[in-house]
C-alpha cells in the first residue's frame, strides 16, 4: 500500500497535476484505506451542485468523483441546477425529507434549515488541522455555534472585469479604488461609447454581490448585531443616490439580468466593464473564436472600490456543501467531502477553475493558479475580504432568508428603475425585513 504523508498531500498542484492516471488511482485507493471516514457498505450517494461556468472545472470535478468511486466503491450520481433553482430544490428536500444526499449550494444555504444538516464537525476539524486552518469566512458559513453543518468548499470571487483599452481611452490607467472615482470612470466610459453594466435583476450571484457592495460600502446594513433593523438610515439614502448615478451609465436592460447576462454582454462587446467572477476571462482565453481571445487579452480585473465606510465591504459567493440528515449514507457523504478537499484532488481542480474558485483552507494560498497569471491575483483574496450574508447581524436562518429573498437587490432595483421613491424603496425593504426578523 502507498503511504500517505502530509508532505505528499500538501506539496502543491504541480506535483498533484503530474500524477499519472495509474498513480492517481493508487493514491485514491491508499487514501480510502487510511481515511478516518469509512463509507457504509454498498453505499451510494446523489449530489446536486450548481451549474458550472468554467468547462475545465466541471471536467476536473467529474474526474474527482470518478476517482472517489473507484477508490471507495461508493456510486455517486451527480446532477446540476442553475444558481437560482438550487436553493428552492434544497428547501423542498429539507421540508419533505427526500431528495439528493448532498447539496452543494450557495451562500448561507445550510442556515436555512440547519436542523436538516448532518453534523460534519469531524470532517471540518480533520481538514482544518491538515491544511493550515479555515479562513474566518468558512467558519461563518460552515458553523452553527460550535457545530459544523456544512463544508465550505470554495468561494466564487466576483470583482470588476474591464477592457484595458477602453479604460485607457476613457482617461484612466486603473480602476479607481474609491466609489467617487469609480463613478467618474463609468461616466467617462459611457461618454466614449464603451458602456458598463451591473445586474439589478434577481441574479443570485452577481446581483447580490453588486447590491450588497452598494449598501455596505456606504456603511448601511440590513440589521445590527442584535438583529435590530437598521435599513432606514441616512447611509442607505446615500447608497441609493450613488446607485442611481451609476445606473444612469448602464446599458438598458440590466434590471432584468440574471447571472449569465453580464457574461454575454461583456463577451459580445455590449459592455466593457462589469462585475463577475473570472469566468468571462477564463472562457474567452481558451475560446476557439479569435475575437474572444482578443477580448481575454484586453481584459483585467480589479477589487471592488472602497466606499465611505473606509474598508472593503463586499459579499463573495460561497459554495458550502451539506449533507441532508435523511441520507442513508452519512459516512459516505463525509468521506466524499473530505476526499475532494485533499490536496491531490483539490489542487488540480483549483487550477482547472482558472481562478473562478477560491479556496477556504489557508494551505492553498500558493496554488499556481494565483502565481502564474497576474490577472487572477485579486481573486485569491476574495475569501479573506468578504463579509458574510447579513454583515453585522448573526448568520442564521433569518440572514439566509433575507439573502434568498433578494431584499437588498430589490431595494436598489426598485429605486434605480423608478418603481419606488427613495422612501418607498426603503420602506418596502424594511417591511420585508420585519417579516423575517420578528
TrEMBL record:
Gene3D superfamilies in the cross-refs: Periplasmic binding protein-like II
InterPro entries: Bact_solute-bd_prot1 (IPR050490), SBP (IPR006059), TAT_signal (IPR006311)
Protein's UniProt keywords contain Kinase: no
Principal location: periplasm
Subcellular location: Periplasm
Family of this protein: Belongs to the bacterial solute-binding protein 1 family.
Stated name of the protein: Carbohydrate ABC transporter substrate-binding protein
